[in-house]
Amino acid sequence: MKTLLYWGWSSLAGLILFSILAHGEMKTFNESNGTNANVLMVGLTLVQAAAAKGAVCLDGSVPGYHLCRGYGSGANNWIIQLQGGAWCDSIQNCQSRKGSGYGSSTLMEKELAFLGLLNNKAAENPDFYNWNKVKVRYCDGASFDGDSENKAAQLQFRGKRIFLAVMEDLMEKGMRQAKQALLSGCSSGGLSAILRCDDFNNLFPPTTTVKCMSDAGFFLDAVDVSGGHSLRRMYSGVVNTQGLQNTLPPTCTSHIKPFLCFFPQYIINQVKTPLFILNSGFDSWQIGNSLAPPSADKSGSWHNCSFSFRCTASQMHFLEGFKMSMLDALKTFSKFSKNGVLITSGWAHCQAERQDTWFPGYSGAGKAKGIAVAVGDWYFERTKQNSS
């Protein structure tokens, strides 16, 4: 049985720690989402007008999104979820990416399942079920942040333009009348939600409540098991390949190396819009790709820990240090009452997109209902209550 602990720390006004004990009980993002015939499937809309704005995917095709209309009390409320899917950190990798739906809209699935935060059932997504819900497809390879091109390689790095073109299309479809709006994203899309958060807020008048949430997007600038910096090497490649030094926040790039500004910990304190950080302290993607990737784990001793969370005592000690570093990196951010933080202790990645982690449906006295309630409490500024 899972044990859930849920409390607020008054000394850190925006910080909530939600600890899921019995680590092995939380499934990874790549496992089944429990989909069935009753899951909402939403069709793809292509933004044809984006081509004239140069807002195109890596291969030059137009971007796309999936829209499910809201109704009733949610008819004028909007959730925008930015799709994740890693990055391309070299010309060769970006060219390979063109041959997938993450680099070309011609290869995107025509329908996607809406689960978790995008679920349309009140019993499974009580706060947001009847909002307008949008999933923006990711096809630029740099978290919706690039604005350059490589003509020789026939690559378009136009993520920022894609974001703005899709938002313009949605504004014309009713989003400009929004009373409440939430920009979210998972994984590299969670990083996108941080990078584009203030841009999103600037689309609306002051009368609209606008907030952002990053799910599994808090990629930590961490030392790997070999003593190196695997994720730094990847991010340096992304920034240099797509010229992100020209689009990342100048408040950051003016005093540290531009590629470091792709790490959320160096930019979140400058985000003006209310922002919620949702992440696992034992993030499964970061364990396997940042902390103990094969390039850093030559002996393969971390394989079981990285890919199935079967870790030795010494490995768990290392991972506990990683989790504490994550919490430490969020201390200043969490002192701003407008912000929220939810760090879980399960082996997971992208928890707002999974029904079993977003709203597991626990009921009864003294039992927490999961991540959905914590996010709802923050968004709607409901009174925080201590429980265990």
UniProtKB/TrEMBL annotation:
- Taxonomic path: Eukaryota, Viridiplantae, Streptophyta, Embryophyta, Tracheophyta
Tell whether Transport is among the UniProt keywords.
no
The UniProt record lists the EC number as: 3.1.1.-
What is the name of this protein?
Answer: Pectin acetylesterase
Domain of life per record: Eukaryota
Cell location: Secreted, Cell wall
Organism equals Arabidopsis thaliana x Arabidopsis arenosa
Provide the alphabetized UniProt keywords: Cell wall, Cell wall biogenesis/degradation, Hydrolase, Secreted, Signal
Name the principal localization, coarsely classed: secreted
Mention any one GO cellular component term assigned to this protein in its UniProt record: plant-type cell wall
InterPro entries the UniProt entry points to? PAE/NOTUM (IPR004963)
Q: Name one GO molecular function term.
A: pectin acetylesterase activity
**Which Gene Ontology BP annotations are present?**
cell wall organization
In terms of Pfam families, this protein maps to: PAE
Function, as annotated, reads: Hydrolyzes acetyl esters in homogalacturonan regions of pectin. In type I primary cell wall, galacturonic acid residues of pectin can be acetylated at the O-2 and O-3 positions. Decreasing the degree of acetylation of pectin gels in vitro alters their physical properties.
The UniProt family comment states: Belongs to the pectinacetylesterase family.
Q: Where is the signal peptide?
A: 1-24
Residue ranges the record marks as coiled coil: none
